[in-house]
Amino acid sequence: MSVAAMMPTPSGPYLEAGLLPADFYAYEELLSDREREKIESVRTFLRTQAAPIVDDYWARAEFPFQLVEGFGKLGLLDWAAPDSGQAHPSNLFAGFLALEFGHADASLATFFGVHTGLALGSILTFGSEEQHRRWLPAMSRFEKIGAFALTEPHGGSDVAGGLRTTARRDGDGWILDGAKRWIGNATFADLVVVWARDAETGHVLGFVVEKDTPGFTATKIEHKMALRIVQNADIVLEGCRVPEANRLQNANSFKDTAEILRRTRSGVAWQAVGVMFGAYEIALQYAKEREQFGRPIGGFQLVQDLLVKMLGNATASCGMVTRLAQLQDAGVYRDEQSALAKAYCTVRMRESVGWARELLAGNGIVLDYKVGRFVADAEALYSYEGTREIQTLIVGRAVTGGLSAFVR
């Protein structure tokens, strides 16, 4: 069905066309038919396998490991295996994939983003051919799960200059010492990409620390109020010996670390759009079914105002990340464009999930109605991969011709 044919009919054409209710301008139709088929297979899996269980796992702060095999069978990362013969997917497809996960659950979106964009992405970008052959096939099939350890307990936004974890050369290996915090997937990851400062040169290097390496411990962070399904960990590295063969051979400075973050930052913006889509969909359905004063509350002006404001935020944000993906696919995007998308979309997300909670009134804080989970999880997306304030300074420096407001 074409966009032109869809738009004149107001009575729910989006679901009939296979589009999400919040995709008011039919952005998904920009994907190829094959890409849309893949997105639809992911959507079906998440709706049938993940949606029925995520609330329970969120309440218990546990991870649904039974879903991981299914992620592998979807073939989402087959292209990453050496000699697969498959082309790297478009950034537009990758964006809609992140949106789809965010639409289902922000924790699953985070798990997926950490494994694919941060961990696998670091190895793919900075690993040697031998390292690609050693790790990527199993990671692409989700048989080995990755994590990415950069943030440290004493700081966050100052990580570029404040990284304290050290790497000391010792014969044919390296000794890692330090601590990391908020490391997603780390309690069960098979491979953890650890960023550490060379004690001799001061350069930031990347290392793949394999599960059960002596001197490496990961302890789950308890009592979280957001992304409760994500198993974030405090990591301690104490005399942790890593062979030279596990050092990412092409990662030689923090600029390389920042390159990974630049790529994944746009993915967080897409996740935020997905969260908006999910919260809007719940609120819209609730407005149609919940009755007060003898009729559905969706027929009241103030309720429609909330719905339209949420839809406007979602539509504007989706347009921004769609254009960003097109620039990425053309190879002409800039760091500040990713930063603006992350800042803008997460602010709009935070606003929109609040309106969804408002529309559901008291039911909005009960997990059974799902919106409360979106509200809580939005707080984490708002902060991770660079706070709004940091993104603002990146964009501000760009638009003022290089005038930096960063404190040194």
Automatic annotation (TrEMBL):
Location of the Acyl-CoA dehydrogenase/oxidase N-terminal domain: 33-141
Domain Acyl-CoA dehydrogenase/oxidase C-terminal: 258-399
Gene3D superfamilies: Acyl-CoA dehydrogenase/oxidase, N-terminal domain, Butyryl-CoA Dehydrogenase, subunit A, domain 2, Butyryl-CoA Dehydrogenase, subunit A, domain 3
InterPro entries hit by this protein: ACX4-like, Acyl-CoA_DH_CS, Acyl-CoA_Oxase/DH_mid-dom, Acyl-CoA_Oxase/DH_mid-dom_sf, AcylCo_DH-like_C, AcylCo_DH/oxidase_C, AcylCoA_DH/ox_N, AcylCoA_DH/ox_N_sf
Cofactor(s) recorded in Swiss-Prot or TrEMBL: FAD
Coiled coil: none
Record key words, sorted: FAD, Flavoprotein, Oxidoreductase
Tree of life domain: Bacteria
Acyl-CoA oxidase/dehydrogenase middle domain location: 147-239
Family note: Belongs to the acyl-CoA dehydrogenase family.
Name listed for the protein in its UniProt record: Acyl-CoA dehydrogenase family protein
